[in-house]
């Protein structure tokens, strides 16, 4: 069915029998969502809340809080996580916490199902504002503002891209709804197209697969798809309809492993908190080309950066990203980020080029290059050894393996692009969306002063 709007769902009681989610085995329908949203909106008005920070691990209650706040004319503030330190750091960004947790400090509006006592308030998607705080690659909080209308338009683009999902294709996720990707794909898109979503994020693949309904949509990331751990293939009669990945490029070996287990190719999503989803690629194709979603126009700027235009990004203007690209009739290919070029010994070094050269070695399964801060920037590399690399590491040790990799790189890179410090690790430090942050990589070298 064509995606509905938030306003239509909140205004039309005749859709009360459509399942939204569930709680303790009981189905929660649009009738429940109407009642709970109305009660939340009334509580927001009574509290005089203008900016409410939503804190809940329950996706249904999270949705109730967002719709209740925005329907009441307040802004829904979405912290990147619910850790006490994060909330303390954002204390000036909200006046109330909206949460189902009773042990949080400060003014709180209780978030629960079945509260009752409210009348539906008209929803205006263009005025319903949601604020996200994303850490970005450096760890510094970044403020991003979205409207409900942006989310509606993104859901419409997704449904045009994948129009044949059945109405019972339940959305399940290993990623949190605090991130725009999890919210858009696991909660908003299913809601507006009449499909149910699981109330909680799955932490373990075993529990997700055990409860997997046939034809489900699995919303995941490289942080999880690289940790399938040799699970047996899902039986054909219980295979999901789609497995999605976003947040960072999925290594080919992980894409192959996931395809073997789930029985279907992985669909990767390209986008950001600022833009939402803008392109996709299926990992059964060899060229790695990203294809824009319906309604998304792409171009390469004079500076080599990808430029986008779409109704769910910015209706009137082109938006420049920090990704360098090559654009073709089929889509675009990523060449690395413009903010990942550093000066080493007075010469410009593209960190992505160093990483590509490293992963071309049969001894390397994955790598991240960074410039260590100091009086003089020092190029360093964190390397995940391949099976052959692990054997070589055990044979000659980390110092000599680093020297060996430097000699290999010297055939492709100038001297400034050869790492001087090395760390060998089973996996890169990654956050819940599969992104590796510079601060976490630097910390690996601070643990030991000699490498």
What do you see in this structure?
The chain has 451 residues and is of the alpha/beta class. Among the domains are: 1-201, Rossmann fold (3-Layer(aba) Sandwich), CATH 3.40.50.980; 345-446, ANL, C-terminal domain (GMP Synthetase, Chain A, domain 3, 2-Layer Sandwich), CATH 3.30.300.30. The protein contains 12 helices and 23 strands. The protein has helices at 6-11, 30-47, 59-71, 84-89, 148-161, 180-192, 205-210, 222-225, 252-262, 351-359, 387-409, 438-446; strands at 19-23, 26-29, 51-55, 75-78, 96-99, 108-110, 129-134, 142-147, 171-173, 217-220, 242-246, 267-272, 276-282, 291-292, 297-300, 305-310, 314-328, 331-337, 341-344, 347-350, 364-372, 378-385, 421-424. Strands 6-5-3-4-7-8 form a 6-stranded mixed β-sheet. A 6-stranded mixed β-sheet has the order 9-10-11-12-13-14. Helix 11 (387-409) links the parallel strand 22 and strand 23 (421-424). Helix 2 crosses helix 3. The longest helix is centred in the C-terminal third of the chain and has 23 residues, at 387-409. Mean pLDDT is 88; it is low at 136-140.
């Amino acid at each position: 069915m064509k995606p509905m709007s938030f306003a239509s769902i909140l205004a039309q009681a005749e859709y009360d029998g459509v399942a939204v989610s569930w709680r303790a085995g009981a189905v929660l329908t649009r009738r429940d969502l109407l009642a709970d949203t109305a009660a939340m909106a009334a509580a927001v008005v009574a509290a005089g809340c203008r900016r409410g920070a939503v804190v809940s691990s329950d996706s249904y209650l999270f949705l109730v809080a967002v719709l209740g706040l925005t329907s009441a004319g307040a802004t829904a503030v979405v912290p990147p996580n619910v850790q006490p330190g994060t909330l303390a750091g954002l204390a000036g960004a909200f006046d109330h916490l909206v949460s189902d947790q009773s042990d949080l400090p400060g003014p709180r509006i209780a978030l629960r199902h079945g509260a009752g006592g409210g009348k539906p308030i008209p929803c205006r998607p263009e005025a319903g504002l949601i604020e996200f705080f994303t850490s970005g690659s450096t760890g510094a909080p970044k403020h991003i503002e979205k409207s409900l209308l942006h989310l509606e338009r993104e859901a419409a683009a997704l449904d045009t891209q994948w129009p044949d999902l059945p109405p019972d294709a339940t959305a399940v996720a290993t990623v949190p709804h605090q991130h725009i990707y999890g919210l858009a794909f696991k909660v908003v898109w299913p809601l507006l197209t009449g499909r149910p979503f699981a109330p909680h994020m799955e932490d373990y693949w075993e529990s997700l697969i055990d409860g997997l309904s046939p034809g489900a949509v699995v919303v995941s990331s490289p942080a999880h798809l690289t940790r399938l751990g040799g699970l047996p293939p899902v039986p054909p009669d219980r295979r999901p309809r789609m497995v999605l990945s976003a947040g960072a490029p999925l290594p080919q070996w992980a894409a192959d492993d996931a395809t073997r287990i789930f029985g279907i190719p992985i669909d990767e999503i390209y986008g950001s908190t600022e833009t939402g989803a803008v392109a996709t690629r299926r990992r059964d194709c060899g060229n790695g080309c990203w294809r824009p979603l319906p309604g998304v126009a792409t171009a390469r700027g004079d500076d080599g950066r990808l430029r986008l235009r779409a109704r769910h990004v910015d209706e009137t203007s082109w938006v420049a990203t920090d990704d360098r690209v090559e654009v073709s009739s089929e889509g675009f290919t990523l060449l690395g980020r413009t903010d990942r070029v550093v000066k080493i010994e007075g010469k410009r070094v593209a960190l992505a080029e160093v990483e590509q050269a490293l992963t071309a070695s049969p001894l390397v399964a994955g790598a991240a290059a960074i410039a260590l801060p100091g009086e003089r920037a020092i190029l360093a590399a964190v390397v995940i050894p391949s099976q052959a690399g692990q054997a070589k590491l055990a044979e000659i040790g980390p110092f000599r393996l680093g020297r060996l990799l430097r000699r290999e790189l010297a055939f492709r890179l100038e001297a400034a692009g050869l790492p001087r410090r090395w760390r060998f690790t089973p996996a890169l430090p990654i956050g819940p969306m599969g992104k590796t942050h510079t601060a976490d990589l630097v910390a690996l070298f601070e643990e030991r002063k000699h490498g």
